[in-house]
Amino acid sequence: MHVVPWGGGPEDAGGIGVIGEMRAVGVGSAARLAVWPDRALGVEMQRPQLVALRAGIVGWLRCAPLRFVARVDLAELNRPIPVASGPLAATVSALTDDLYARWSPAGPASFLIGRGPVVWSKTRQWEESDDPGGAPPFLIDRVAPDRRWGLTFLGDLGAMSYAAGVYEDLDEVEPRPRPEDASAGGWIASAAHLEWTPIGPMRRPATAGAVWPMPSPRSDPWYTTPRASLGLGVLWRVDEGGASRIDVAFSTQSKWRWTALLAEAVITSQGGETVVGGHGGVVLTPIDRLALTGRIEWDPGAGVDGRRALLGGVTWHPTWQKTKDRRNKIGLIGWVRRDVERGTMFDGVVVLLQAVL
């Protein structure tokens, strides 16, 4: 499970590292105010906007199996409606991407306390900067929380990895920029995820424990080996009135040579009603510097009667020969998104610029 930003450090050596990320989008065209995941209030046309401006530190102790991560995202102040207009605690949470300590007393067991990722959906196992579509699917962005304050237990037994945690989910603590946010009115949440990878790693080369959505580079010794993984996630939330909501995610991921496939079904049960949504995508890398992405979504809980979405993109990784991680990129990403009954358009095309330190 990828819960330390951009990998980690050697377990037997202490140290400290600086991490940074800048992501910006500029709307090239849109049917209306463009809707981008995590910026659902809109991105104005002809006005580039920061999606992320993150900076922080990662530290490891030599004398104890402890890691520390602290990272803030100053781009939150650039939202169309500033987070500073809400409760102080919500502003602090919005600006604080990660602030946690991770204790690993044994290989198959680690404990993470503080503000960090809620590992539930398959696409919440990696950073948005690693997502080939430039952002998580609209469905996952609406349904699944990204970061929360809480306690997480996680581990890895090679072919099997797992995580479980309990988190606060209060409106006074978490910003609610989206009226359709599945956590609105929440109180507490718990999540669990199980991942089975029978053959070979799905991680980024030379980064243990980091699930990676991209195809393997040509230099990876597993490049020619067909690999697959199966995942199961459960997210249970209780709101302030005592009503509960359960979201279950079934996912499958495969890699072979320059192709990566991902599909995920999300089943939601709330108030005696059950709905099924999902998304699927493909990533092709004809050469290691170039990635072609396609994604399709069905989100029955959005809008009045649900929304369909189709996304496509092309990204270029200018520093591939030096960094080998595909984190620095320039992309052109477009999508078509429709309300099922009303046909309301949420289409757009953005230019994505991403730089990661």
Can you characterise this structure?
It is a single chain. The chain has 357 residues and is mainly β. It has one domain: Porin. Helix content is 5%, strand content 52%. It is built from three helices and 18 strands. It has helices spanning 88-95, 138-143, 320-323; strands spanning 15-30, 34-36, 39-43, 49-60, 66-73, 96-106, 109-117, 147-156, 160-168, 186-196, 227-239, 244-256, 259-270, 273-287, 290-299, 307-316, 329-339, 348-356. A 16-stranded antiparallel β-barrel has the order 1-4-5-6-7-8-9-10-11-12-13-14-15-16-17-18. It has a two-stranded antiparallel sheet with strand order 2-3. Strand 4 (49-60) and strand 5 form a beta hairpin. It is globular. Residues 1-11 have low confidence and may be disordered.
Distance between the termini: 21 Å
Task: Give the mean pLDDT.
Answer: 84
The residue ranges in which pLDDT falls below 50 over 5 or more consecutive positions are 1-11
Tell me the total number of β-strands: 18
Q: What general form does the structure show?
A: globular
Strands in their spatial order, largest beta sheet = 1-4-5-6-7-8-9-10-11-12-13-14-15-16-17-18
The CATH architecture can be given as Beta Barrel
CATH topology: Porin
Order of helices and strands: EEEEEHEEHEEEEEEEEEHEE
CATH class: Mainly Beta
Largest sheet: 16 strands, antiparallel, barrel
Return Rg in Å.
19 Å
The CATH fourth-level homologous superfamily: Porin
Q: What's the oligomerization state?
A: single chain
Summed up, the domain count is 1
Beta-strand fraction estimate: over 45%
Fraction in helix: under 10%
Count of DSSP-assigned helices: 3
Question: Class by helix and strand content?
Answer: mainly beta
